Prior knowledge:
The structure is a homodimer.
Chain A: H1 3-6, H2 14-17, H3 19-22, H4 26-35, E1 37-41, E2 46-48, E3 56-70, E4 76-82, E5 87-88, H5 90-95, E6 102-115, H6 116-125, H7 127-153, H8 156-171, H9 185-192, H10 196-208, E7 212-215, E8 218-221, H11 224-231
Antiparallel strand pairs in A: 1-6, 2-6, 3-4, 3-5, 3-6, 7-8
Helix pairs in contact in A: 6-7, 8-11, 9-10
Chain A binds a DNA duplex through helix 10.
Amino acid sequence: MDDNLFDTSCESCAFRTHSLFRNLEEHERQEIMLNKITETYKRGSIVYLQGNRMKGFYCVRSGIIKIYQTGFDGKEQIIRFAKVGDIIGYRSVVSNEPACTTTEVIDDAVLCHIPTEILLNLVKNNGNFAVELMKLTCKELGEANSYITDIAQKTVKGRLAEILIHLDDEFGEDVQGILSISLTREELSNIVGTATESIIRLLSEFKSRNYIEINGRKIKILDKPGLKRIANI
Amino acid sequence: MDDNLFDTSCESCAFRTHSLFRNLEEHERQEIMLNKITETYKRGSIVYLQGNRMKGFYCVRSGIIKIYQTGFDGKEQIIRFAKVGDIIGYRSVVSNEPACTTTEVIDDAVLCHIPTEILLNLVKNNGNFAVELMKLTCKELGEANSYITDIAQKTVKGRLAEILIHLDDEFGEDVQGILSISLTREELSNIVGTATESIIRLLSEFKSRNYIEINGRKIKILDKPGLKRIANI
DNA sequence: CGGTACGTTGAGTCATATCAACCATAGTGG
DNA sequence: CCACTATGGTTGATATGACTCAACGTACCG
């Protein structure tokens, strides 16, 4: 039996990679391991829906998740992505509100579900954990604030350039230099906050100016500094 | 001597109004009161600048503060406001990053400065405080996320209508029904994320349709449901 | 083989930005 | 006290970025 494939221990995952879990006491680690539920999700599955009451949060063991809000006319706005090591759903758990986002798997994923009570107990009883979780939340808040400014002030072209840079930084490239995250045109438009057609036109403009190379959903960044110039960063 | 005027005790302020400080131990309260510095700020003063290293956070005793980011071309984007009972600057303290916003007084204010160490100690040592602060941050994060969706999906007209509703809910009205917060057209445009001229035109459109009444900076909402319809809420 | 989801392109329209001129007000310095 | 300047507000004309609508191509899938 392949150890890696069936090893769902947190030791080989979150406890090692995430600063959040580094300072846990032994009994706290035990508690998490005993109470977590690990599940596999196929591309397209919904982990939770906007409006749902959460019974816990999720820790991403592998895969990629998109987190979005649905606007009044049904259009989705992607807020962020989560990948290995990230945690999702904790906001609603902490504030004890219904989920303000929907969470959908875009690359087959394995998630661990950890019950509400454990999270709240950790925040209450482990100061270092509380500080780390606060840091994480504050970082997200800072990013959200910056994105508000971007979306309010930059053109669609600038935002698309910026998003491409972000995706490259966050998810990296494969051996051929192609962005590791693969998104539909519509998904791109739901990040940037524009129409699908606009994304298509801008992508082909970027291509014709040799900023990028495209082949279906495969995008390769050729001129990162050029894109940064367009994005004003 | 008027007790109220010179009473800078937290007992009559944050300890009473803010759930964050409700569950503090007596020695924690003492520590805050002994180490805080209370200062008066005139309209227009800057409390801290984007990029500053923070030595603590501020608790708003009175007045109104605007919190904004400066975009690459110098245009400001107002992220939120703070008023009595709110705390500001804690994000940067917790994440130990330079301030990602500038904070400017728009209604004469009294602020209490509380050093970094005290905040971090409270998070570490008082579980209830940690949970409350997490809740606060998560609430802000949820609001930021919603604002991203709004700004990405709604028209300028819809956003302006929504902002007017928000300002009314958050700051209330005076006896004549006039919004208690008074903003320049430019400030309104820096919330909505648009040009000043657009705000002017839309305000007079709202006026001509009897949604609002305007007299310089004084705005009175006449038809809240109507505005909500425009804002899609 | 037809269906469904995704991608592309073109044409027309509209919301919003930009530019420019002008007015009102208040504060400043000589 | 007045001219001077800065700031905020308003309006009109014009430009344009981005959306919408519509048609069509492409690819995969049962």
